[in-house]
Amino acid sequence: MGKIGLWSCLAALLIVAPLLAGTFAGKIESVDADGRTVVVEGTKKAGSRTFKISEKAAITITGKKGELADLVEGATITVTFDDKDKETATRLIAKNASAASSKKTPQKVETTKAAEKTSLPPGTGADWPCFDGSERNNISPETGLLKSWPDGGPSLAWKVSGIGEGYSAISIANGFVYTMGNVGQFETVTAIELETGRIAWQQKTSEASRLQMGNGPRGTPTVDGDQVYTLGGNGDLSCMQTKLGKPVWQINILQQFSGSNIQWGISESVLIDGDKLICTPGGEQATIVALNKKTGKAIWRCSAPGSPKAGYSSAIVADVAGVRQYIQFTHNYVMAVRAEDGTFLWSNDAAANGTANCSSPLYGQNRVFSASGYGKGAAVVELASIGGKTKAKFRYHTNKMESHHGGMLLVDGMVYGSSDPGVLRCLDLKTGDVKWENRSVGKGAITCADGHIYVRSEKGPVALVELNPEKYVETGRFEQPDRSNAESWAHPVVSHGKLFLRDQDLLLAYDVKAKD
Prior knowledge:
Layout: H1 3-16, E1 21-32, E2 37-41, E3 48-61, E4 64-65, E5 76-82, E6 85-95, H2 97-103, E7 108-111, H3 113-118, E8 139-140, E9 155-161, E10 171-173, E11 176-183, E12 186-193, E13 199-207, E14 222-224, E15 227-231, E16 236-241, E17 247-252, H4 253-256, E18 271-273, E19 276-279, E20 288-292, E21 298-302, E22 316-320, E23 323-329, E24 334-338, E25 344-348, E26 362-364, E27 367-372, E28 377-386, E29 389-398, E30 408-411, E31 414-419, E32 423-428, E33 434-438, E34 444-449, E35 452-457, E36 461-466, E37 474-479, E38 493-495, E39 498-503, E40 506-511
Parallel strand pairs: 3-6, 8-34
Antiparallel strand pairs: 1-2, 1-5, 2-3, 3-4, 5-6, 7-9, 9-40, 10-11, 11-12, 12-13, 14-15, 15-16, 16-17, 18-19, 19-20, 20-21, 22-23, 23-24, 24-25, 26-27, 27-28, 28-29, 30-31, 31-32, 32-33, 34-35, 35-36, 36-37, 38-39, 39-40
């Protein structure tokens, strides 16, 4: 073939080649590196398309060679595909992937000048990796905190909006704050930089939960290593990476285990114990189930007597004379299952109200203290184990602790909690005797740190109270600014020298570390 003929053939190939391939441009909606698929959101007219990624596909990210796992949601991308197979991508060109991830969500962050001078260095303080803290006892290990507050309360370090509507509290690990909310049409997990209050990433997990008594998720994220787990109001259980929110696995626990949603929406914050994830679908197939935290596959399931539905509580762990067990408050009763294999151990219904059992049980001194609202009150059972089994002996009932959903504390044999209709009380665990009570703050949620109780009223005020078994001593109070119209039900959290208050779309962080 002569030179003229060769160049003619090459020219023809150059003309025909573009006709053999197509392109689709837009923003990355989701990436599944293991399944080698990418969902791209195009224009309104074009809609979204899912592409299978060829093993030989060339991937370029901001001008450099990249891997499929490096692509992040929100990045702009152009996909090239074979015109004969329009679902298989042969080339991906993404731009500013990391920048797109951090800028994709509108947000408003305010940091005070005073806070900039007093902010703690990264890594200072104790993490709060799940609901009620790493020990699930609602007690922060923080020390060196303010013993009293000035007029107007402690200094505001930062506040951030854009986290969505809902009642999820927060968890803190590895320099990030995690929470959940309805953002637009989706339940969304948000990761926030601990020191700056800036949103690092947001990940959609399911359609937005529209529920009675307020929209949005109620559960709090659980962080374990480099993964974060969330359970939404409609039962969607998600596992994702902590760094960028990349999905790892997801199931719906109600669909998977033939449960049905409860009246005001699933409100559980899942428990991680070793390799197991513990949650409560409720119903005939699985009152409580243990899943493999890495895959979401069932390890064991327990169908408890009477097949109770889930309550609004979150499970705790107890070791009773060598028998490790998970204790949970269901719709019908407080119950326990053996951690090893899910064997049903015991139950007691003396504190169950038949409407909504919300506050997690307390365990200490071989006793379980459970309480609920709606006029029911509290009960104590004493546990004893023998031969790998545990029995619960009823000790007493009292109407002096009607804890609705604000949580309780057990410290040095004393139970502290907000009792309906709005009385903060201290009770002796062994006898149920009231040590003191005070009505000035009103009904609310509590937590504990460094010898003090932090009381967050559902109407807005926040109080600092001594952890004192003899009398009520208040050492500070302030009104939360920028209050929403909703009641403040998200529990307060004290971690890394800060007090965190979630109020629907707003999260506020206050400096409560004492100055040297």
